[in-house]
Write a structure and sequence with these properties.
Blueprint: H1 2-20, E1 36-41, E2 44-47, E3 61-66, E4 70-79, E5 82-90, E6 103-107, E7 125-130, E8 138-139, E9 146-157, E10 161-174, E11 181-192
Antiparallel strand pairs: 1-2, 1-11, 3-4, 4-5, 5-7, 6-9, 7-8, 8-10, 9-10, 10-11
């Protein structure tokens, strides 16, 4: 009887732990071209699901290889019920026609960002744009840093399949209040362009 009690207790605790895992609401970290992405922002799930409706609907995930030597991701979704957009821009990635772009990219420079500047004027960064009409932007800089790791690339047939997958994390600071930051953790993306 005692063994049965401990077995039931263990199963209950394991089930409870899985339910309390904050990353449980995020898409799986895959590399199949599933066009999924998500992260935790200050511990809350932010998943690329898009927002709006009808012809004005904003897609959940956009970007990929761009501007000849850059990589760009745009995740659009909801954070705490409010629309928002997370942008990741990697400048000067190696030629994507080979596997050399696999690896870690640091987000540790103060830089301008899209759409304020042209791609050639931007260094690598992450930025979060709350869609709340305040003009507030949270972005990485030399003191508030992050990293992106590209873990998988398949460009075997550029016309058909351009898959890239990886992980990301960062701390970003508000342009309106230097005491406000966002912490991005458990980020993952699986993009087919």
């Amino acid at each position: 009887m005692k063994t049965c009690f401990y077995l039931v207790l263990a199963v209950t605790l394991l089930a409870g732990c899985k339910k309390d895992d904050p990353a449980a609401g995020l898409p799986a970290a895959t590399h199949t071209g599933a066009n999924t992405a998500g992260c935790l922002i200050n511990g809350q799930p932010f998943v690329a699901t898009g927002f709006g409706s009808g012809p004005g609907r904003v897609a959940g995930l956009g970007g990929g290889f761009a501007y000849d030597s850059a990589y760009y991701l745009r995740l659009n979704g909801k954070l705490g019920g409010q629309d928002g957009s997370l942008h990741i821009f990697l400048n000067s990635v190696p030629d994507y026609k080979n596997q050399a772009l696999l690896g870690e990219y640091l987000l540790n420079n103060s830089t301008s960002y899209l759409p304020i500047a042209l791609p050639g004027q931007c260094l690598s960064y992450a930025a979060f744009f709350p869609n709340d009409n305040t003009q507030e932007v949270y972005r990485t800089d030399a003191q508030h840093t992050g990293k992106v790791e590209i873990t998988y690339v398949d460009i075997s047939n550029v016309r058909v399949k351009r898959v890239s997958s990886g992980t990301f994390e960062s701390t970003a600071v508000s342009n309106l209040n230097p005491n406000k930051t966002l912490r991005v953790t458990s980020g993952r993306f699986d993009r087919q362009q």
